[in-house]
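Hey team,

Filing this mostly as a record. A colleague (T.K.) asked me to run one chain through the structure pipeline before their review meeting, and I want the input and output archived in the tracker in case anyone asks later how it was produced. No errors, nothing strange. Just documentation.

Input sequence:
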Amino acid sequence: MKTPVLILVRVSTNRQDFNHQLTDLKKYCEQMNYNVVHTIKSVVTGNTTNRKRLDLQELLEVAKTKSFDKVIITEISRLGRRPSEIRSILDQLHALKISVVFRQLGVESLDQDGNEGLISRLIVAIHSEIASNERELLSQRVKSGLAHARSKGKQIGRPVNTGLTDKELLKKYKKLVLDISNGLSLRKCEKIHGITRTTIIKVKRAYESNAA
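Output structure:
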């Protein structure tokens, strides 16, 4: 019997593509005789805290259904850039007996008995620190680049008012809002409307906020 798994892929900008990560992880799952029952794809910058990451909120929500045994990701930074946040996600998944497979490291967070071994814990801790340091270095480079651009009089960031407010979201996705109000699950809404789970969660939050 194939082991049910969830694939989590993340890119930092809209200019990046999920497909390379997704293709690699799907091939890996085939080789390991895993059955991919869920896939979560998101665009999240490295500076975003885990509390604001809808993809991780979705992961933990789906994990409670216990419909999969493992989470397959390319590397540790996909779970966050801060060691404490990465540890928190792992602890919540481990409490549900869900293991995390770090594809590039060839490491799994839990052993066959559902326990976290000392070696895997140390590897995760070390690479969490490395991911954190990489984020800090990147942040410093970005700040330096922005300061240089400003000194040249260049516009920084996206144009004003290109984001959508709650009311604009509700107006844009009227049919989705109707299905949400009727109690349809996230998965059904995703299939019916062909919209990413992350967007559906945003719309649901906007609806619940305005309905309160």
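Quick notes for T.K.: Strands lie at 3-11, 34-43, 70-73, 99-102, 107-108. Residues 158-162 have pLDDT under 50 and may be disordered.
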